Amino acid sequence: MENSAIDQVRATEFASESTYLNTSTCGLLPRRATEAVRKLAGDSAVGIRGGVGSFDSVDAARAGFARIAGVAPARVSVGGSVAAHVGIVAASLPPGAEVLAPTGEFSSVVSPFAVRGDLRMRYVPLAELADSVRPGTALVAFSAVQSADGRVADADAVRAAAAAHGARTMFDASQSAGWLPLDAGAYDYTVTGGYKFLMCPRGASFLTVTEEAQETLPALYAGWVAAEDRWNSTYGPVEKLAVDARRFDEPVAFLAYHGAEQSLELLAEVGVDPVYAHATGLAARFRKGLASIGHEAVPGTSAIVAVPGLGGREPDLAAGGVMVSARAGNLRAAFHLYNTEADVDRALDVLSG
Fold it and tell me: Could you give the CA distance from residue 41 to residue 18 in angstroms, rounded to a whole number?
């Protein structure tokens, strides 16, 4: 039986006009998030005082993500993109430092390191990542779940190997936060785009930093929003940056964060554990159905299902009202709290012709 909280949320918050299995690209916005964005946009259009946006919503979103990530809000920095967060981490490394990452890792996770030109980049297959950490590795940068094919990293093994060799870890939760439980405190840094399984408007992203690691990161975006006292730091150099991870904040898009506050609140009401059971159950049903019609998916228990070589069927599915994506030649379907068994069966019907 499906979780009653998920049933209620699906009925009251979502009204998809398609069989939407494309959360790995972009999550659906809950109704309450859409209304919050619409209200702020409307207020801004008519000059209502404060219509530009509220830091209260930004800090509420920060706290909402902190709950999901299992850390205190003081450990969370907000921004607009994963690449910008990773850029701060990249800027903290000394010339010649070795960065270890999986082969085929998502561009935003590795490019800020690679473009520096003075770091040693080393790429290995995902399954070999933990065994490839060695003395001299400064940082292991990897995603919890691979974007191209939904494979789930052995994060415990990577973390243990990094600790054994004195390496730091940067963990990207963009394809996992919202359906896979997250313990951000176990990593030196986590980076998360909010517009996928967290169902936030695009433009909301989160960086978590351990207290120790905070001492080594540069405050690249040291504007007044990163000051300890925002409103008394608007002119001249900031005299005192925030004492916690807020010192790494980027100036944010208020529209995105007014929506993010609501989306993260909804997810907290439902709980990530029930979403995990629901989404992975649907993914398992899809894998079994694929096998029955002669298609082998990438094995595993991920909520993201990829079928190698089948990416060319994405247009056929779209024509049939089934929204998926094609990545690296794979057909990729992602399941979330707003999906049902009927969605799985509809996708299988279209694929079977």
Answer: 27
Rounded to 10°, the helix 272-292/341-352 angle is 20
- Residues 317 and 260 grouped into a single domain: no
In a domain, 50, yes or no: no
Give the residue among 192, 159, 190, 155 at the shortest CA–CA distance from 177. Answer: 192
- CB neighbour list of residue 144: distance below 8 Å, 6 or more residues apart: 152, 153, 155, 171, 172, 173, 175, 176, 177, 180, 182
Same domain (yes/no): 233, 324: no
What is the arithmetic mean of pLDDT over 222-231?
Answer: 96
Three-state SS across 24-93?
CCCCCCCHHHHHHHHHHHHHHHHCCCCCCCCHHHHHHHHHHHHHHHCCCHHHEEEECCHHHHHHHHHHCC
- Alpha helix (H) residue ranges in 119-207: 129-132, 155-165
Is the domain of 183 the same as that of 326? no
Domain end, chosen from 239, 269, 299, is at 269
Q: Is residue 35 part of a domain?
A: no
Q: Residue 63 is part of which domain span?
A: 55-269
Which pTM was predicted? 0.96
3-state class of 153 per DSSP? coil
State whether 171 and 66 are in the same domain: yes
310 token code pair: 């089948």
CA dihedral 287, 199, 28, 110 (to 10 degrees): -60
Backbone angles phi, psi at 191, to 5 degrees: -130, 140
Distance CA 262, CA 121 (A): 39
Tens of pLDDT along 148-199? 999 999 999 999 999 999 999 999 999 999 999 999 999 999 999 999 999 9
**What would the two tokens of residue 249 be?**
């904040």
Based on the fold, state whether residues 263 and 130 are members of the same structural domain.
Answer: yes
State yes or no: pLDDT of 1 exceeds 50: no
Residue 52 backbone zone (phi > 0: left; psi -120 to 50: alpha; other: beta):
alpha
Tell me the pLDDT tens digit for each residue of 332-348.
Answer: 999 999 999 999 999 99
* Total domains, the chain: 2
